[in-house]
Design goal:
The chain has 432 residues and is of the alpha/beta class. The chain contains 16 helices and 14 strands. The chain has two domains: 239 residues, 3-Layer(aba) Sandwich (Rossmann fold); 139 residues, Rossmann fold (3-Layer(aba) Sandwich), CATH 3.40.50. It starts with 20 loop residues before the first helix and ends with a helix. The chain binds pyridoxal-5'-phosphate (PLP).
């Protein structure tokens, strides 16, 4: 479909014109004062708990459990121990000398690719698995799209000794076969979801159905900062470790705070984890990079903050890719981990307040960034993380000489089939 036929032009921030400048300032002040989420699980107008009656009790029990345990000193000590001794934290902060030289900037990478199972997802998975055990859960259910959250959940469940069932769309199971095998090796049962779109969206629905059908003893381990309250809050709290470590490491290595921090945004968990400890630092610019796919037209990307408008998906009111009739749009991205039509509600708030700038990087820019990061720094980044690199590079071009902190959310080994068809085929042709 060409742009002129597009019935829903890109909106993004333009869809939030109902919020006055005064309201934006009030929301920002409330946010840095720690007022969100409020009692209703809202981040200003966003978030909340828009779920059917049958799902309310399960969410309320989880909310009570989060209140009881998350800040409990014993629970925190147990979590810290697992992060240190099992998950490989703290992850390194790497100065990137060649990228710095090429971009005319000072570039640092927060290396979540070095965390156990290859990405930041383990921070959330082990935290929720430990919480589930404290809550007396007998089994865990999880959803997965590309399989990264499924692998992290399966590993965390093996570690804490709870059986794990992972729901995965039938189409995704075919596309991500190695991760299906990995989950099974780690002891998880993988259930193929043939309903709905047979991808991540249907897998979330199916995992929720299981959770509600087995209210006693089942814990739902959600993989990103999305969904109904308290999930966006719970996942943020478990991912804050990224930003807290990075802030301290950056001050030690650079002797100052960064001028800008950059992360990729799918559901938004690695980004909110990196961003949150810097939100109250006015000198630090914050940049979130969504998947621009093959273009900004309808169905060509997965960038709800850049081109969507508010709506409800999976229990939360947030920016969303949907048409005038409320139909969720198809999404497209070369990176499976960013390929989701919605985004966590705290990011919608950050967009509305203007504190964070959200932009999109397209598939080609991400591939270029993979190549550059590999050859310059000896690091193969995940395709998701490559979007952050591409966005940071663009920012550096208009802000010379600045200090840039990039969240490198994961490693790219999982992307080898895609890279083989694209970058590697190109390299082979150049070398022959
Ligand atoms: C899943 C994933 C993402 C996207 O998820 P967020 O919740 O937006 O962080 C980003 N990078 C990697 C490496 C992932 O595996």
């Amino acid at each position: 479909m060409n742009a002129s036929m597009d019935p829903t032009p890109a909106l993004g921030a333009a869809s939030l014109t109902g919020i006055s400048a005064q309201q934006r300032q009030a929301l920002y002040a409330a946010h840095i004062a720690g007022k969100f989420p409020d009692e209703l699980g809202r981040y200003g107008p966003f978030g909340g708990r828009y779920v059917p009656e049958t799902l309310i009790p399960a969410h309320e029990r989880l909310e009570a459990g989060v209140k009881r345990w998350l800040r409990d000193p014993e629970f925190q000590a147990e979590l810290q121990r697992e992060l240190l001794q099992w998950a490989g934290r703290p992850t390194a902060l790497s100065h990137a000398p060649k990228l710095s030289q090429r971009w005319g900037a000072e570039v640092w990478l927060k290396r979540e690719d070095l965390a156990h199972t290859g990405a930041h997802k383990i921070n959330n998975a082990i935290g929720q698995a430990l919480l589930a055990r404290r809550l007396g859960a007998k089994r865990i259910v999880a959803e997965t799209g590309a399989g990264q959250h499924g692998v992290a959940s399966a590993a965390a469940c093996a570690r804490v000794g709870l059986p794990c069932t992972v729901y995965m769309g039938a189409i995704d199971m075919e596309r991500q076969a190695p991760n299906v095998g990995r989950m099974r090796l780690l002891g998880a049962k993988v259930v193929s979801v043939t309903s709905g779109d047979q991808t991540l969206r249907a897998a979330i629905d199916e995992a929720m159905r299981d959770w509600v059908a087995n209210p006693d003893g089942t814990y739902y381990l959600l993989g990103s900062a999305v969904g109904a309250h308290p999930y966006p809050y719970l996942v943020r709290e478990l991912q804050l470790v990224i930003g807290r470590e990075a802030r301290t490491q950056f001050q030690q290595q650079a002797g100052a705070l960064p001028d800008v921090i950059v992360a990729c945004v799918g559901g938004g968990s690695n980004a909110i984890g990196l961003f949150h400890p810097f939100i109250g630092d006015p000198s630090v610019a914050i940049l979130g990079i969504e998947a621009g796919g093959i273009g900004m037209g309808l169905g060509e990307n997965a960038a709800p903050l850049s081109s969507g408008r508010p709506g409800v998906l999976h229990g939360s009111y947030s920016m969303l890719l949907h048409d005038n009739d409320g139909q969720i749009q198809e999404t497209q991205s070369i990176s499976a981990g960013l390929d989701y039509p919605g985004v966590g509600p705290e990011h919608s708030l950050l967009l509305a307040t203007g504190r964070v700038t959200y932009e999109a990087a397209n598939d080609d820019e991400a591939l270029d960034a993979v190549r550059e990061c590999c050859s310059c720094e000896g690091i193969l980044p995940a395709l998701e993380s490559a979007h952050a690199l591409a966005g940071a590079r663009r920012w550096a071009a208009t802000h010379p000489g600045k200090k840039i902190l990039i969240g490198l959310s994961g490693r790219g080994d999982k992307d080898m089939p895609t890279l083989q068809r694209t970058l590697i085929a190109q390299l082979a042709a150049e070398q022959s």
